[in-house]
Structure formats: C-alpha cells, structure tokens
Amino acid sequence: MYDYKIEATDKATLYSDLALALEGLVAGEPDGIANMANAAALIWESLPDINWVGFYRNIDGELVLGPFQGRPACIRIPFGTGVCGAAAQTRQVQRVDDVHAFPGHIACDSASNSEIVVPLVRDGELLGVLDIDSPKHARFDAEDEAGVVRLGEILAKAI
Ligand code: SME
User: Fold this and answer.
1) Is the Cβ–Cβ distance between 66 and 128 less than 8 Å?
2) Is the minimum distance from the CB of 127 to ligand 1 under 6 angstroms?
C-alpha cells in the first residue's frame, strides 16, 4: 500500500517531490509494465488539470498503448503520426499548446487541448513515450517540460 500525497505550491517542488516518489515507487522492481502502471497512477494523482496520462511502447517500430489513466485510448499509433508519433520519430519532446493545430493530431479524448510527450530512450533504443494530456490550452510550460523529462529519465531505467 502506497500513500503518496504530493501537494507542492510551486512547480519546481512539485516535480522534485514527484521524481523522488517515482524513484521510490520503481526501486527494486524489474517489471516494466508494473512500473509504468504505478507511474501513470502517481502522475494522475499528482498533476492538476490533466485528463490522460500514460505510455505508448515501441513494439517493432509501432507505438502500442501501455498502462495509462484516463479514457480508453487509440491502441496503435504509427511513428510520425500525431503528437506521440512525432515524439517517437524525432526522439524530441513534443510540447503542444493547442493540439487541434498540430498536424495529424489523434483526438482520443475530445476534451484534450494541450499535450506533452516525452520519448523514453535507454542505451540508444527508443522504448516508448510518456504522454500527458490536458483539457486546458497551453497547460504545459518549460518548467513542466523539465519536470516531465526528469520523470522520463527515471522511467527509461525502470521499464
Ligand atoms: N493525442 C495523441 C494520441 C494519444 S492520446 O492523446 C492518449 C497523439 O496525437 O499522438
């Protein structure tokens, strides 16, 4: 039983608390699916104004849905398609203020308006992506990006 309650007033503290909690949650557990599932739950509970958080895994060059919180989502996304596919293809973080203006955006939940996707890379291999959606426009700023990238670094070692 884990009881994490992260209630920081500023983003820097929020993300450093979140990174510490995530490190604790995955410590010593070799099962990647279990770690992704707990990570999705922790982020879902901790970040305000989000409506989806979860993983797409790189399975033979295609993104396949992994553990998540939120509404049921599209299962398979080709590299290069939508925000997740762009992150997978370029291995660059995609931080999108208005997903409706993003070419090829895949609307899994019509409530989503902004999104951040972080590629998860270990030893030069793309393992998958961490995707977070928000109903607010421009929900994710540079501080969020730094914080989510840090979570991605922890996860790339744990999945
Ligand atoms: N909107 C994403 C698809 C995944 S869902 O948001 C869960 C995209 O365009 O890649």
Assistant:
1) yes
2) no
- Per the CB < 8 A criterion, the answer to whether 118 and 102 are in contact is no
Q: How confident is the model over 117-149, as pLDDT tens digits? A: 999 999 999 999 999 999 999 999 999 999 999
- Angle 142-144-146 (CA atoms, 0-180°, nearest 5)? 70
Does the C-beta of 116 come closer than 6 Å to ligand 1? no
57 lines ligand 1 (CB under 6 A): no
Atom of ligand 1 nearest to the CA of 70: 7
Band of the pLDDT at 3, cuts 50, 70, 90?
A: low
pTM of full prediction above 0.85: yes
- How far does residue 28's CA lie from ligand 1's centre (Å)? 31
On the question of pLDDT at 2 being above 90, the answer is no
Question: Which H or E run includes 19?
Answer: helix 11-26
DSSP-derived secondary structure letter, 79: T
C-beta atoms surrounding 11 within 10 Å: 15
